[in-house]
Specification:
single chain; about 200 residues; 4 strands; about 60% helix; globular
Length: about 200
């Protein structure tokens, strides 16, 4: 709603426009209303939810020691390329991994920095006078606004790729993301006849 009401972003140079993110046909096809104030209200409400959730997540990673499974190591960049080639069915076999593979470690660490970037760019354009030093560090109001928008696009891209990967991985993986628990099938039991007392004994 915010960007639909003030569609100032485009790809191009000077007066030449190659692509607008939301062309006029997009608005007409979906009958999109231009309600900037309402969009800002929703934005600030969800901003606090995401900011608090992100802070809790970072604190959990630090105090639980789980950050060791998330933060990339010196092999992650090379191994992440192998993971991408495997997912594209170009190369067979995956490099050894723990809870997360190398590509996931880079993506999940990157999204934390993206969240932090969204927070500081958002503050600088929300209160450019009160946070004038922060705004200046980001290149000024207009640059901070562009950076905030670019981070929004990167979050959308992360979301799409993430959901596609979850669908490919199967329902159990999706269920684990929602509930926090992985469900494993029960081990097959076979029955053997005990020769001593003539009873059936389950064997795992």
């Amino acid at each position: 709603m915010i960007y639909w009401a003030n569609d100032v972003y485009r790809l191009g140079w000077g007066d030449k426009t190659v692509l607008r993110f939301f062309p006029d046909s997009f608005y007409k096809a979906l009958h999109i209303p231009f309600r900037l104030a309402e969009g800002m209200s929703f934005h600030f409400m969800f901003m606090w939810l995401f900011a608090i959730n992100g802070l809790c997540y970072i604190l959990y990673l630090i105090f639980s020691g789980q950050w060791r499974l998330i933060v990339p190591n010196k092999k992650s960049l090379k191994e992440s390329l192998l993971v991408v080639l495997h997912d594209l069915h170009i190369k067979r076999g995956l490099p050894p991994q723990k809870k997360y593979n190398a590509a996931q470690r880079i993506a999940y660490t990157g999204v934390i920095f993206m969240g932090f970037g969204s927070l500081i760019t958002g503050l600088s354009i929300y209160k450019p006078v009160q946070f004038h030093r922060l705004c200046a560090m980001l290149g000024g109001y207009e640059w901070a606004r562009i950076e905030h928008f670019i981070l929004t696009l990167l979050f959308c891209l992360f979301f799409v790729v993430h959901i596609v990967q979850v669908i490919i991985a199967g329902w159990n993986n999706f269920q684990a993301m929602i509930t926090g628990f992985e469900v494993y099938p029960a081990p097959m039991e076979t029955e053997t006849k005990d020769t001593a007392d003539n009873t059936l004994t389950p064997v795992n």
